[in-house]
Amino acid sequence: MHFEILVEDQSGKKALDILVPRILAGGHSFHVHSYKGIGRIPKNLVTHTGASKRILLEQLPKLLRGYGKAFSGYPPEYRAAVIVVADLDDKCLSIFREELLALLAACSPRPETRFCLAVEEGEAWLLGDIPAVKEAYPKAKDSLLATYVNDSICGTWERLADAVYRGGAAALAAKGWQAVGAEKSRWAERICPHMDVAKNASPSFAYFRGKLLELIGEAS
Fold first, then answer.
1. 147 in the same domain as 77
2. Which residues in the chain show pLDDT less than 50?
3. How would DSSP label each residue in 29-82?
4. What's the rounded Cα separation, in Å, for the pair 17 and 33?
5. What is the pLDDT of residues 193-208, one digit of tens each?
6. How many CB atoms are located within 10 Å of the residue 158 CB?
7. CA distance to 137, 150, 157, 198, per residue, from 164 (Å)
8. Do both 106 and 13 map to the same domain?
């Protein structure tokens, strides 16, 4: 089976390029596409911004319609699915999921699609494996890691920064959002190689992993 995986930023791509092969365990293919932020679903599901802007939700109606048409032309024995990975941030989970499902329902033909939301942010998936964080950052602050509640709405990237970055989130944020994005990518590159995908404690990561495995099971 083939997976087209859409993520909202470069750090997400770096993480999934490492983690997805461990979940699929061979015999399947995937391509992770990174975007430059999440944005919002456009009104009337009409994409007005150019593709060069690469804002995930603003491009998503157009992308899903395109995948629907492409997948419909594949031979029956070749199965493909779209996996949309986005941060929940401060959105209501049920409302956001309903909006995404409504967007998908408007596609004809409709591509096989799963929506996987990191709660609260993608760094929750890194913090779902504290031993991996400690392996990558031996001097990480145990007091901050030990009190983290998986998938809690707590300022997740800031919690990780406070644990592993000199000066914490305040020092990193003071350098600007480009520096924050670059550091998030470094976290993904350093932590993900040590992660155990079968034991990650983040419920939203487990959901993502489960959807991939579910689709593979359907394809086998």
1. no
2. none
3. EEEEEE-S----PPGGG---S-GGG--HHHHHHHHHHHHHHHHHTS-TT--EEE
4. 10
5. 999 999 999 999 999 9
6. 18
7. 6, 17, 11, 24
8. yes
Is the four-CA dihedral 185, 191, 196, 200 of positive or negative sign? negative
Q: Are residues 173 and 209 in the same domain?
A: no
Structural domains of the chain, count: 2
Give the residue numbers spanning the domain of 175.
123-194
Give 26's contacts (C-beta < 8 A, 6+ positions apart): none
For 190, the token pair is 């350093």
**Residue type (1 letter), 160:** L
Residues 113 and 175 in one domain: no
Q: Which two tokens stand for residue 7?
A: 């993520």
Is 8 in a helix, a strand, or coil? coil
75 and 169 part of one domain: no
Cβ atoms of 42 and 56 closer than 8 Å: no
- Alpha-carbon 71 to chain mean position: 22
What tokens does 215 get? Answer: 């689709």
Instruction: Identify residue 132 by its one-letter amino acid code.
Output: A
> Do 29 and 89 have their domain in common?
yes
pTM: 0.94
